[in-house]
Design brief:
CATH topology of one domain: Aspartate Aminotransferase, domain 2
EC number: 1.4.4.2
Number of helices: 30
Structural class: alpha/beta
CATH superfamily of one domain: Type I PLP-dependent aspartate aminotransferase-like (Major domain)
Radius of gyration: 28 Å
Family: Belongs to the GcvP family.
Distance between the termini: 55 Å
Enzyme class: oxidoreductase
CATH class of one domain: Alpha Beta
CATH architecture of one domain: 3-Layer(aba) Sandwich
Organism: Microbacterium keratanolyticum
Strand content: 5-15%
InterPro entries: GcvP, GDC-P_C, GDC-P_N, GDC_P, PyrdxlP-dep_Trfase, PyrdxlP-dep_Trfase_major, PyrdxlP-dep_Trfase_small
Number of strands: 27
Shape: globular
Helix content: 25-40%
Length: 960
């Protein structure tokens, strides 16, 4: 049987020898592998880790063995019927969406749509999402998704602080907010000097006299539905901004936050067809009133036009604002939950406004029916007005009732406290289950019941929604499964993903997401579990989490790992908060200075600011390394206040820095901690470990090194790993099933994600990857990735200078090609090359990061030599085309490069009046004739889109 690693790694041994020969490395005496021969020339000997080094990873399993082990873990989870609520609900994922989106590599292997011409399908799906959110919340603009509801609430709090003209640091929080949201708000507020004041808003408690913002839960965690208009008006009179966390399904029946006067709405779209997955991933949302759209964090999809003046979608405004503003950034979020946002938007497209309203009406009617049966049984139901959630007073007997429901009927109720039970109804709730719950409270043992349309609910008449929503034709046109299937297929065909070809993006590691790794995420035993289910129901999940934590600790050289952060940016923040907590515990309140190299990823500086630190920039030398002299000078200047150094290893410039041990030692000698960004771990795994480099804490990108797919810009998982002295300060959670983690560590740090284990529903992917690769496979994958990058660098060096290399002239897993000499000689820009690559059938590498005018290329270990050579040949051909422009063969303003990409319509409709041929445009190499990818739009005018911000579905007439 072929080992999984041999399936995952694209280059064979024979191909690797061919590539090594191009690097001038010939076969040795056979004492080391071909890839080790390269790695010894690339990785500094001072950090080298031998293959024989001890590892706790089990021997690699076959695909069948890994699936069998996952089945065994899944069997230890009990899929009871959750009525826990708190933002997580049962939902029916339409099979047409599960099969054609969630399980479709055309959607889950796509990258963030930074090249909009080849991302029109998912950009349309995201603009559907934005339209859905904006119209349901009654606000003017929504972004393309947030990480979850609680982090969206934290971003809303920070936005309110920016938007308010009041100098106060006080933020009032609804006493009836979700407990996980309160906990996360407390974590985020403490780091940046915000004072939280909990207020019983529905009970009439007065707001603080001096405040910059208010947070309202609508409906409340208790289920209560009330009119917050007076509170909102009072807040506005005081100059405060109001953030409302709203249930989107409830908003199909209830007055919208916008109608109530809210400035910002946040929440989750989980119940729009996305499984609970033990906490995620789910698409959070944020929408704002007019005037705040340029304050929105995260990604925003807008409408622009292409070179022919036709409407086209693209990312707008603050996209990756961290790279531009760095320590002045207002958010560290550089990702979204695109795959889940697409699912939620398709749920709305499939059901339409009538279907959503029907689901909501049935849910509300079931909740009212349950209330009637409970009251009939003598139960004390707390609120008269509610949507889907009831709170029941049972003095001293809450745990007893919850246990009876679980043991007797397999139903999970929420124990609010010793005297109170919470019960949430959703679209999957049956009347039989309502009857069973009523019986727990002493209701009738036998009933005769049926189904009735238009059953009453318990919503206040004055708060019923009167305005229309989801009026765009897209929400009315795809009711049959045939139509829906074809719509999603049409969108997928407009996109470029890994199922079409290589995505050679530096910094982003677009590696294979193997089908076996993906298989388990839709199993009900993983997908159908509530994040706050009792520990007895999730033994398999907790075992999988323990194993993955231990494996990640082993391969990184750390002692403890938290899987809670649900994005790399949140892992960064969690690591810095751990450092902050450590210094505070030692009485070193003054240690707030964070040293960050000038080349660092922009989220580093943004995360430092959000952790309450002051950024001090450290220079880099001409080779792209940290300037050791400048580092020592900055350490000396800030010795008393030094908190941390943040570095990326290998560096952001794609090289292994030889001075890394000296760098970390210098920081430690001054009393600081070392944060090593794990973005480039794919170039290190198996050959060196962060913990051995002097790292105290790191975040890891499971959506890069550990095979979780990018999904068009999310989901992501960003675990944080730390040495033992920082372990107590890693993220905790008030609703976690247990406090202990792998290695016996207990975490007591603040909450960084809504769920205890973040996006746990996709952890089986990384578990399967590590389990099937084993230590040897992970090491081989690293070497294969580094070999491919060096092969590309060597073959393209005669045509495009490689900007940075290590001491032996080698790069790590990525190389930076300098296109500035090409621009100066020919006028052809990095944008022209990127767009021309589309005509050759490629997604462009990373543009102008970390250096303007460059392309950062990362081939990953998944690509075979044929695809790598195809990319190299395309880049060489593009250089020859640029030379043709320089020589005068083609005019500077009319050539295949400046007009790229070329659509079929541009080639076939009308007269051809260009200085080059149609064949030059469409088929620059003959191999494209057999399988051409045709971009749906021509080059998009980015500036036009920013000047004319449109962030909702344009009318059909716009495409006529």
């Amino acid at each position: 049987m072929t080992a999984f690693a041999d399936r995952h790694i694209g280059t064979t041994a024979a191909a690797q020898w061919t590539m090594l020969s191009a690097l001038g490395i010939e076969r040795g005496d056979g004492s080391e592998s071909p890839v080790d021969a390269l790695m010894r020339r690339a990785v500094p000997q001072s950090i080298w880790r031998d293959a024989a080094a001890a590892s706790t990873l089990p021997v690699a399993a076959s695909e069948a063995e890994a699936l069998a082990e996952l089945r065994a873990l899944a069997s230890r989870n009990t899929v009871n019927r959750s009525m826990i609520g708190l933002g997580y609900y049962g939902t029916h994922t339409p099979s047409v969406i599960q099969r054609n989106i969630l399980e479709n590599p055309s959607w889950y292997t796509a990258y963030t749509p930074y090249q909009p011409e080849i991302s029109q399908g998912r950009l349309e799906a995201l603009i559907n999402f934005q339209t859905m959110v904006a119209e349901l919340t009654g606000l003017s603009t929504a972004n393309a998704s947030m990480l979850d509801e609680s982090t969206a609430a934290a971003e809303g709090m920070l936005l309110a602080r920016r938007a308010s003209k009041v100098a106060s640091d006080v933020f009032a929080v609804d006493a009836d907010a979700f407990p996980q949201t309160k906990a996360l708000l407390a974590t985020r507020a403490d780091a940046v000097g915000i004072a939280l004041v909990e207020v019983d808003l529905a009970g009439g408690e007065a707001l603080p006299a001096d405040l910059f913002g208010v947070f309202v839960q609508y409906p409340g965690a208790s289920g209560r539905v009330w009119d917050p208009t007076a509170v909102i008006d009072t807040a506005h009179v005081a100059g405060a901004q109001v953030v409302v966390a709203a249930d989107l399904l409830a908003l199909t029946l209830l007055a919208s936050p916008g109608a109530l006067g809210a400035d910002v709405a946040v929440g989750t779209t989980q119940r729009f067809g996305v499984p609970m997955g033990f906490g995620g991933p789910h698409a959070g949302y944020m929408a704002v009133r007019a005037g705040l759209e340029r304050q929105l964090p995260g990604r925003l999809v807008g409408v622009s036009q292409d070179a022919d003046g036709r409407p086209a979608y693209r990312l707008s405004l603050q996209t990756r604002e961290q790279h531009i503003r760095r320590e002045k950034a207002t958010s560290n979020i550089c990702t979204a939950q695109v795959l889940l946002a697409v699912m939620a938007s398709m749920y709305a497209v499939y059901h339409g406004p009538e279907g959503l309203r029907k689901i909501a009406s049935e849910t509300a009617a079931n909740a009212a029916l349950l209330r009637d049966w409970l009251v009939e049984a003598g139960a004390d139901v707390t609120h008269d007005a509610f949507f889907d959630t009831l709170t029941v007073r049972v003095p001293g007997r809450a745990a007893e009732y919850a246990q009876q429901a679980r043991d007797g009927f397999g139903i999970l109720l929420r124990v609010v406290d010793a005297d109170t039970i919470g019960i949430s109804v959703d679209e999957t709730t049956t009347t039989t289950e309502l009857h069973q719950v009523a019986m727990v409270f002493g209701g009738k043992q036998e009933r005769v019941f049926g189904f009735a349309d238009g059953a009453p609910n318990a919503l206040p008449t004055a708060l019923l929604r009167a305005d229309s929503y989801l009026t765009h034709p897209v929400f009315h046109a795809h009711r049959s499964e045939t139509a829906m299937m074809r719509y999603m297929k049409a969108l997928a065909d407009r996109d470029y993903a890994l199922d079409r070809g290589m995505i050679p993006l530096g910094s982003c590691t677009m590696k294979l997401n193997a089908a076996t790794e993906m298989a388990a995420i839709t199993w009900p035993e993983f997908a159908g579990i509530h994040p706050f289910a009792p520990a007895a129901d999730v033994e398999g999940y907790l075992e999988l989490i323990d194993q993955l934590e231990a494996w990640l600790a082993d391969v990184t050289g750390y002692d403890a790992v938290s899987l809670q952060p649900n994005a790399g940016s949140q892992g960064e923040l969690a690591g810095l908060l751990a450092i902050r907590g450590y210094h505070l515990a030692n009485g070193d309140e003054q240690r707030t200075a964070c040293l960050i190299p000038s080349s660092a990823h922009g989220t580093n500086a943004a995360s430092a600011v959000l952790a309450g630190m002051k950024v001090v920039v450290v220079a880099c030398d001409d080779l792209g390394n940290v300037d050791l002299a400048d580092l020592r000078a900055k350490i000396a200047a800030h010795a008393a206040e030094l908190s941390a150094l943040m570095i990326t290893y290998p560096s952001t410039h794609g090289v292994y820095e030889h001075d890394v041990l000296d760098i970390t030692a210098a920081v430690h000698e001054a009393g600081g901690q070392v944060y090593i960004d794990g973005a480039n771990l794919n170039a290190l795994l198996g050959y060196a470990r962060f913990g051995d480099l002097g790292g105290d804490v790191s975040h890891l990108n499971l959506h890069k090194t550990f095979a979780i797919p990018h999904g068009g810009g999310g989901p992501g998982v960003g675990p944080v790993a730390a040495k033992a002295h920082l372990a107590p300060f890693l993220p905790s959670h008030p609703l976690a099933q247990r406090a202990e983690h792998a290695g016996g560590y207990t975490f007591e740090g603040g909450v960084v994600s809504a769920a205890p284990y973040g996006s746990a529903g996709i952890l089986p992917i990384s578990w399967a990857y590590v389990r099937m690769m084993g230590a040897a496979g992970l090491r081989t994958a690293t070497a294969a990735a580094v070999l491919s990058a060096n092969y590309i660098a060597a073959r393209l060096e005669p045509h495009y200078p490689v900007l940075y290399t290590g001491e032996n002239g080698r790069v790590a897993h990525e190389c930076i090609l300098d296109l500035r000499p090409l621009r100066d000689a020919t006028g052809v820009t990095v944008d022209d090359v990127a767009k021309r690559l589309i005509d050759y059938g490629f997604h462009a590498p990373t543009m102008s990061f970390p250096v303007a005018g460059t392309l950062m290329v990362e081939p990953t270990e998944s690509e075979d030599i044929g695809e790598i050579d195809r990319f190299i040949d395309a880049m060489i051909a593009i250089k020859q085309e640029a030379d043709a422009v320089a020589s005068g063969r083609w005019p500077a303003d009319d050539n295949p490069l400046v007009n790229a990409p070329h659509t079929a319509a541009a080639l076939l409709i009308g007269e051809w009046e260009h200085a080059y041929t149609r064949e030059d445009a469409a088929y620059p190499v003959r191999s494209l004739v057999a399988g051409k990818y045709w971009p749906p739009v021509r080059r998009i005018d980015q500036a036009y889109g920013d000047r004319n911000l449109v962030c909702a579905c344009p009318p059909i007439e716009a495409f006529a």
